[in-house]
């Protein structure tokens, strides 16, 4: 049995998404001497991020005020027009802007690949000296003798399906840190354990989730309007009295990102989120864009839908939850990347101050 290797740092961050990378960047911006490690289970930064998004640049502008001049991929496609459709089986009603709450406006936002934005954040983090380790899932939390979090252990490599060690077995590494930030996204494994260990959900509503299925399509250039953003509600979920909605974003390079979220508290056991997405794509208003096009990528992911009242206690001895691990999604806007980034930045500021004060 080989010994575990270990390393020490000031802050270890579990998850290299928008939240984790923004936290890492902010820590280094405040104090370049801090040793900051980001562990990402994907084979590269951005590998596990579902691409198409409309991003509110608020937090990005606070992190890098001149991000538009820094070759940031998100700067490419500002939102140009914004539609909210209520679908019936074959028709659509376009909601007038003046009756929509102001938060539903996407004016000033950008549409593009969240994966590419995350890759860009990863490059910025590495440029500032953050140690970014893709391909390293954190699999266990370490506690000190007072019960405070003191870091994480990365997953053992070379373990067979039956649990036996293969020839290339390597035990995971202990990463010991003064503070550990958990930025695993929605329903992370370690986050779930921490919620139980520290009873973090004692004073909030239970978190609830939706399942989002996304696709990226190359469409007929004649139908492509860069910066057009469409959100839909209504059909097909009205047929099963379920909740959710669709989106279709015209991004750069003649592509559209489209997707459908089905709230997972549906009562009808026959509802299939995947089939509802397929039906939605067949709606004349959506099909019109896709006909003659080609799907180039697809994926699915959970999204927090509990809102503000489901945000748990964030901090505990030795660490904190940030981003979607904490449930920071503005549900009606289907936006969580800016809140993820901002929560990471705020956590970083508190940690840098605490370390600066010798705590
Ligand atoms: C269908 C859908 C559509 C969306 N559309 C938008 C949109 O248009 N605009 C918007 O702003 N937001 C949108 N969101 C929400 C947005 O994707 C999230 O709010 C945002 O990605 C959260 O960032 P995060 O860093 O907290 O988590 P994530 O982006 O989920 O990143 C977490 C990272 O941690 C890694 N990780 C997890 N566990 C571990 C572990 N144990 N060890 C190491 N690494 C780990 C993962 O691989 C991942 O890279 C959408 C979400 C969905 C599901």
Helix proportion: 10-25%
Which of globular, elongated, flat, extended, rod-shaped describes the shape?
Answer: globular
**Pattern of helices and strands:** EHEEHEEEHEEEEEEHEEEEHHEEEH
- Measured between the Cα atoms of the first and last residue, the distance is 36 Å
The named CATH superfamily = FAD/NAD(P)-binding domain
Distinct ligands: flavin-adenine dinucleotide
Largest sheet properties: 8 strands, mixed
Share in β-strands:
25-35%
CATH topology annotation? FAD/NAD(P)-binding domain
Q: Do you know the CATH architecture?
A: 3-Layer(bba) Sandwich
* Number of helices, where a helix is a run of at least 4 consecutive DSSP H or I residues: 7
How many domains make up the 3D coordinates?
A: 1
Structural class, by secondary structure, is alpha/beta
Low-confidence stretches: none
Nearest-integer average pLDDT: 96
CATH top level class name: Alpha Beta
Number of E strands: 19
Radius of gyration: 21 Å
What's the short story on this structure?
This protein has 359 residues and is an alpha/beta fold.
Question: Topology of this structure?
Answer:
Layout: E1 6-14, H1 18-30, E2 36-40, E3 52-55, H2 58-63, E4 81-87, E5 92-94, E6 110-113, H3 114-127, E7 131-134, E8 138-143, E9 149-154, E10 157-159, E11 165-170, E12 174-182, H4 189-197, E13 209-218, E14 228-234, E15 244-250, E16 255-263, H5 273-281, H6 284-290, E17 294-304, E18 315-316, E19 319-321, H7 337-356
Parallel strand pairs: 1-2, 1-12, 2-7, 4-14, 12-19
Antiparallel strand pairs: 3-6, 4-5, 8-9, 9-12, 10-11, 13-16, 13-17, 14-15, 15-16, 18-19
Helix pairs in contact: 1-3, 1-7
The structure holds flavin-adenine dinucleotide.
